[in-house]
């Protein structure tokens, strides 16, 4: 049974069998981590079951049954009878230090909280209060998940690992979506401004756009200060592709700039053709209402720019939960809806929906006109959408 794609079942019996098998895989992974089994298996060679069992002090029969269960994923392998070895997936799991933290949080907190979702609905109904969540019922305390993080550094580390894991499903999708836009058709002014929280993804996209489209000049506007060393590394990387040095006129030094502009402050670049805002992803640490307030602040910061320059466009790129089923491929949609439910169960939070952004955009007006979105770019395998926004007179 493969767990790399959402379940596709033809009967209730098959559904229950697959659910049961997946629950066993989760339990087996936890068992392997609890007994440090993965660390005892060499990355490049196989080891006898009895040797591994002796190393971690567990019954060989237990080890054999657990390994053979997760091998159906496939996670670990039995290259010859009686021997266990890493495969690519298990080796990557070991190399990614936060994997075991994320798994521990899923088993100890996330899954038990999810199993209290029915009780939370009965007790609290449609409440959005963090103290009235599935997590609060499961933990049997008056602590919110954020206060639990403040009091327990291990708990916070494990939750951060899970948050990082859930967000990993969208890795590269920001760049993929932007590269799919029609940059070659841009005429005249080809200045692009990339706006958002400091992230390697923002730097990577700027680097790629500047490298692939020789007519584009790019400015990164980070809401937080980016250390000079990171900027120099970025420009050095770009210069190695374009030729020259990071400060050579006409090369990377001119075509890629980095600056700090604090969230919501007035846009200080008046002549760009395109402004791209990467909307933060709601999480347990950043509520969706906070993210929406950040979006509104940035829309206001760009209203006068778009009004003064009708040719300019603001593109909002956001991680979005579809309001109907089936518009995305099953794997992408399952990852989105999983994250959304985890936010609900842990903190009574949720991801953004299209209506949230549509309402935020239409609410930016000045008595003469307002911001409107003209086109929406999507991709079935991409959990992000791009909204092209203009200023329109009433």
Look at the structure and give the mean pLDDT.
89
Helix vs. strand class:
alpha/beta
How many whole angstroms does the radius of gyration measure? 24 Å
Tell me the overall shape: globular
Provide the low-confidence segments as ranges: 244-252
Query: What is the straight-line distance between the termini?
Result: 57 Å
Could you give a short account of the major beta sheet? 7 strands, mixed
CATH architecture of the largest domain: 3-Layer(aba) Sandwich
Percent strand:
5-15%
Name the helix and strand elements from N-terminus to C-terminus, one letter apiece.
HHEHHEHHHHHHHEHEHHEEHEHHEE
Number of helices: 17
The helical percent reads: 40-55%
CATH fold-type name of the largest domain: Rossmann fold
Q: Numbering strands along the chain, what is their spatial order in the largest sheet?
A: 5-4-3-6-7-9-8
Level-1 CATH class name of the largest domain? Alpha Beta
Walkthrough of the structure:
There is one protein chain. The chain has 394 residues and is α/β, with parallel strands linked by helices. It has 3 domains: 14-95, Arc Repressor Mutant, subunit A, CATH 1.10.10.10; 98-167, no CATH class; 169-225 and 255-322 and 350-393, 3-Layer(aba) Sandwich (Rossmann fold), CATH 3.40.50.150. Helix content is 49%, strand content 14%. The protein contains 17 helices and 9 strands. It has helices at 12-34, 37-40, 49-56, 60-70, 88-95, 98-114, 117-124, 134-139, 145-151, 153-167, 173-179, 200-212, 228-242, 252-255, 288-308, 330-347, 354-362, and strands spanning 47-48, 83-84, 191-196, 217-222, 256-260, 274-278, 313-319, 369-379, 382-393. It has a 7-stranded mixed beta sheet, with helices on both faces. α12 (200-212) links the parallel β3 and β4 (217-222). α9 packs across α10 (153-167) and α15 (288-308) crosses α17 (354-362). The chain is globular and about 75 Å long. The chain starts with 11 loop residues before the first helix and ends with a strand. 32% of the residues are buried. The model is unreliable at 244-252 (pLDDT under 50).
């Amino acid at each position: 049974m493969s767990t790399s794609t959402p379940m596709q079942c033809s009967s209730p019996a098959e559904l229950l069998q697959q659910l049961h098998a997946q629950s066993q895989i989760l339990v087996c992974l936890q068992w392997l981590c609890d007994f440090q089994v993965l660390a005892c298996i060499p990355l490049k060679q196989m080891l006898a079951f009895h040797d591994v069992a002796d190393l971690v002090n567990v019954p060989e029969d237990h080890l054999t049954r657990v390994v053979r269960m997760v091998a159906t994923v496939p996670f670990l392998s039995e290259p010859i009878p009686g021997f266990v070895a890493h495969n690519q997936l298990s080796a990557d799991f070991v190399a990614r230090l936060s994997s075991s933290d994320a798994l521990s949080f899923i088993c100890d907190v996330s899954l038990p909280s999810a199993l209290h979702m029915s009780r939370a609905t009965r007790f609290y109904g449609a409440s959005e209060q963090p103290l009235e969540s599935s997590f609060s019922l499961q933990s049997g305390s008056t602590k919110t998940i954020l206060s639990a993080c403040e009091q327990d550094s291990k708990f916070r580390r494990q939750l951060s690992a899970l948050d990082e894991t859930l967000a990993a499903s969208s890795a590269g999708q920001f760049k993929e979506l932007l590269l799919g836009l029609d940059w070659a058709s841009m005429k005249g002014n080809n200045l692009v401004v990339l706006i958002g929280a400091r992230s390697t993804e923002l730097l990577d996209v700027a680097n790629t756009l500047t490298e692939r489209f020789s007519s584009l000049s790019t400015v990164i506007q980070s809401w937080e200060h980016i250390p000079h060393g990171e900027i120099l590394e970025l420009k050095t990387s770009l210069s190695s592709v374009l030729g020259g040095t990071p400060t050579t006129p006409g090369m990377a030094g001119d075509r890629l700039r980095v600056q700090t502009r604090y969230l919501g402050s007035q846009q200080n670049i008046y002549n760009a053709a395109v402004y791209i805002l990467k909307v933060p992803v709601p999480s347990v640490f950043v509520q969706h209402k906070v993210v929406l307030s950040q979006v509104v602040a940035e829309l206001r910061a760009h209203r006068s720019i778009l009004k003064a320059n009708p040719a300019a466009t603001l593109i909002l790129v956001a991680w979005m939960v579809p309001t109907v089923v089936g518009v995305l491929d099953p794997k992408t949609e399952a990852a989105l809806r999983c994250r959304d439910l985890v936010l609900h169960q842990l903190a009574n939070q949720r991801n953004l929906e299209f209506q949230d952004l549509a309402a935020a955009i239409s609410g930016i007006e000045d008595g003469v006109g307002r911001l409107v979105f003209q086109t929406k770019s999507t991709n079935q395998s991409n959990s992000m959408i791009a909204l092209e926004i203009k200023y329109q007179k009433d």
